[in-house]
Amino acid sequence: MNKQSSNKVKNCVGKENFERMNYLFQIGQVAFNFSPVASAYYNNLMMNIAKRSVLRIDPHIKRKICRRCRIPLVPGQSCKISISRKDNMIYHRCSKCFYLKKYPMNKNHQLHTDKEEFIVEVLDYGKEENESKDVKK
């Protein structure tokens, strides 16, 4: 391999695992309407892949899944949301296992992944030049 070809494409460590986790998360969200048990199974698979390959899941995705029973947290269907003005907290209670999760209710609060100083590099995996040439033929 020469240096030019290695510099053109940046490889993401665990790209295939991220793609599989993304697919399982999407299937888990869609499957919840038909079978909550299957949805929990897909979300559990996603979490196990992340643990096995030592990859971090985005906090926005973690907030959409119950930590205990792994079903998707859909307000009004699988979780109850309550607001405590005294504590300035938002409470999510799972309807299946009754797990309670608290989130701060501060309008200036940002997750660490949303802050620009924490973003090191953004990789774009659009169509590569070779793939686009094959499509044009």
From TrEMBL:
One GO CC term on file: nucleolar ribonuclease P complex
Pfam families: Rpr2
GO biological process annotation, one example: tRNA processing
Keyword Metal-binding: yes
UniProt keyword list: Metal-binding, tRNA processing, Zinc
MF GO annotations: metal ion binding
Transmembrane helix is among the record's keywords: no
InterPro entries assigned: Rpr2/Snm1/Rpp21
Entry-linked Gene3D superfamilies: 6.20.50.20
PANTHER family: RIBONUCLEASE P PROTEIN SUBUNIT P21, RIBONUCLEASE P SUBUNIT P21
Family (UniProt): Belongs to the eukaryotic/archaeal RNase P protein component 4 family.
Protein name per UniProt: Putative ribonuclease p protein subunit p21 apis cerana cerana
Organism expressing this protein natively: Xenopsylla cheopis
Organism placement in taxonomy: Eukaryota, Metazoa, Ecdysozoa, Arthropoda, Hexapoda
